[in-house]
Amino acid sequence: MKLELISFALCPYVQRSVITLLHKQVRFQVTYIDLAHKPDWFLALSPTGKVPALRVNDETALFESAVINEYIDETTLPRLHPEDPLERARHRAWIEYGAALLAEQFAMMTAQSEEGLAAIEARFFTNLARLEGVVATPFFRGRRFSLVDAAYAPLFMRLEILHAWRPMPRWDELAKLRAWSRALMELPAVRDSVPADFREQFRMYLRDKGSVLVK
């Protein structure tokens, strides 16, 4: 099976799929595109115009990171999704919740005023805190890594970087989520899912967006 992942280096949704591929030790190649100038061939693959897209055997294309990850999980062992249908549905629900949190995090990261940042940050952490009573540690379901972990690792990676640059007291208050985050950041599949100069690229990206967080 030949897999080609269409990517933008800083995209957290792409990173979800990279983590899954690396964790399962699946061979794949990456093709980077400029999201400001999307090539026509990419738009033909991804009707939403978003990354990631996964081209399988140079023919069929998949889009949306959650769908791509489920395909990878269904075609390679061991399975990361639970066998029980109800528990599997529960995991899918929290993956969707994580996608919404990533959107809120992006709004927080690109806020251009202290007032705007405060409002978005309050909403983000209120929604993030709902996970504190749900997660087992060290990973979402305890000792076993799952697709939920792959979905949340990009969010936590960015949050840890932002927290190092500008401490966020509410992040310190979420003890179970911090423990989950630390466990994920120690995994080779998470560490290797971004470029070596990710922090600097990330800072420059936020600076170009006018983010108050990096002023």
Any overview of this molecule?
The structure is a single chain. The chain is 55% helix and 8% strand. The longest helix is centred in the middle third of the chain and has 25 residues, at 85-109. It has 215 residues and is α+β, with helices and mostly antiparallel strands. The model has no long low-confidence stretch (mean pLDDT 96).
What keyword list fits this structure?
215 residues; alpha+beta; Glutaredoxin; Glutathione S-transferase Yfyf (Class Pi), Chain A, domain 2; 2 domains; four-stranded mixed β-sheet; 10 helices; 4 strands; globular
Q: Which structural class is indicated by helix and strand composition? A: alpha+beta
Tally of helical runs:
10
Elements, N to C (H/E):
EHEHEEHHHHHHHH
* Largest β sheet strand count, sense and barrel closure: 4 strands, mixed
CATH class of the largest domain: Mainly Alpha
Radius of gyration: 17 Å
Give helix % range: 55-70%
Termini separation comes to 46 Å
Number of domains: 2
Determine the strand fraction and express it as a percent band.
5-15%
The coarse silhouette is: globular
User: What's the architecture of the largest domain in CATH terms?
Assistant: Up-down Bundle
Count the E strands.
4
Write down the overall mean pLDDT. Answer: 96
At the fold tier of CATH, the topology name of the largest domain is Glutathione S-transferase Yfyf (Class Pi), Chain A, domain 2
